[in-house]
Amino acid sequence: MTPDEDSTDTAEIEERLEQVGRYSTFVKAGLGVILGAFALAVGVLLPANLDTVAGAVDAVLLPLIFVGMGLLLFGIGMHLHLMHLNLVRQLRKGSDEDSSPSEDEHDS
Known about the structure:
The chain has 108 residues and is mainly alpha-helical. It has a domain of 68 residues.
């Protein structure tokens, strides 16, 4: 790969990583929808099925599974978000080092 292609790829990566915050917002909104649906299910289905323990568990079990899956996906999404932020930090640190002249260049 030539240096020009490498710098273009780095610039493209940097542009895409600038949008990481937007994806983090989508992950949080998705978790909010899942938690809202769970609250709605507990508020509506549970009182209607309180006559037996099996009915109450049956009414809440599926929404509870979705909340668990939502929390797992939220954790994965936040982990990926932090990994991307770390990559952005490394790219910025690398570009700062490239833009500042080194001591060897001043000696010649």
